[in-house]
Amino acid sequence: MRTIKIDIPSSLDMKDYDLLMILSTKLYEDSRLSLGQAAKMAGVSKRTFIELLGNYGVSIFSNSISDLHSDISNA
Hints:
Layout: H1 16-29, H2 35-42, H3 46-53, H4 65-74
Helix pairs in contact: 1-2, 2-3
C-alpha cells in the first residue's frame, strides 16, 4: 500500500478518521476500490465499513443496471 502526506488546513476541524472515511467511501463509490480495499484503507472491518457507508451518503448497492443483473444471476 502506498503512503502519501496531505497538508490539511488547521481550520478544517475534522479527525483523521473522518478524512480517511470520506476518501475511502468516495473511491468505493466510484468503483476505484473494492469493499475490502476501502475498508482496509479506512482502517475498519468490512462489516463496519458497510455499516458506516450510509453516514457518508454512499449505498452498498450499485446504481448500475448491468451490475444489478449480474448480482441477480449470481445469487
